[in-house]
Amino acid sequence: MSKYDVLFVPGQVDIVAGLKTDTPIIYYTDGTVPLMVNYYWFGFTKKAIKEAELVEQRAIDNASYVWLSSKWAADSVIKDYHADPDQVSLFPFVVGNNDEQKIHVAKYDGQTLKVMFSGVDWERKGGQYAVDAVETLNQRGIKSELLITGIRELPEAVKSKKCVKNLGFLNKNEPEGLKKWNCIILCVRMNSSLN
Questions:
Q1: Measured between alpha carbons, how far is 42 from 50 in angstroms, rounded to an integer?
Q2: Are 43 and 62 contacting, i.e. CB atoms less than 8 angstroms apart?
Q3: What single-letter DSSP state applies at residue 43?
Q4: Which of 58, 92, 55 is nearest to 73 (CA)?
Q5: Other CB atoms within 10 A of residue 179 CB
Q6: Longest C-alpha distance within the chain, in Å?
Q7: Which of 17, 29, 65, 195 has a C-alpha 20 to 30 A away from that of 92?
Q8: What is the pTM of this model?
């Protein structure tokens, strides 16, 4: 008998592919190799793509259930990897809009709300959505500031916004970059100011 009822593995295709267990596995991801090649991943050799697809096929075959964050990805798991549709489920990353799913937070106390956006590709990661959200919060009387990391060059229209603070590109693989990154995360969690 297993010590666990289920193993939930988000985004680690290699782990799911290699797991040897009788415990049911839920594999959760936001894309597949066929979708990512030439959309997000570039310059892969045919051999590398074939090997990645083989690992992904093993993971999908090994998982009891495959959860996807979009219909686009779910359709690919069924079409490209011949997964049983009954074992494929859609669980978007977004919060639902019914009252049972809403998160209720404490009353706003007037502090400046720190919101962090991190990503190298401004458009693909939805940077403008973050700007729009922070501006909307400010318009509604909730003082908010958007802290941006990862973007080397912000769009001109965003640079001049008072609610935006661009902290530049940080390489988390280097000690100094990781230290700054951790400091920003702590600042956001504690809702304190950056020096």
A1: 14
A2: no
A3: S
A4: 92
A5: 12
A6: 60
A7: 17
A8: 0.54
- On the 0-12 / 13-18 / 19+ scale of CB atoms within 10 A, 128 is middle
pLDDT one-digit tens code per residue, 93-141: 754 455 555 555 556 677 888 888 888 888 877 889 899 999 999 998 8
Per-residue HEC secondary structure of 67-107 comes to: EECCHHHHHHHHHHHCCCHHHEEECCCCCCCCHHHCCCCCC
State both tokens at 9: 């593995």
| pLDDT exceeds cutoff 50 at 45 | yes
Domain boundaries, the chain: 7-90, 105-190
Centroid of chain to Cα 195: 27
- In sequence order, what are the residues at sequence separation of 6 or more whose Cβ sits closer than 8 angstroms to the Cβ of residue 22? 2
Match 């990805």 to its residue by tokens: 73
Tell me if 115 sits within 8 A of 144, measured CB to CB: yes
CATH of domain 7-90: 3.40.50.2000
| Angle at 63 (CA atoms; ends 58, 67), nearest 5 degrees | 115
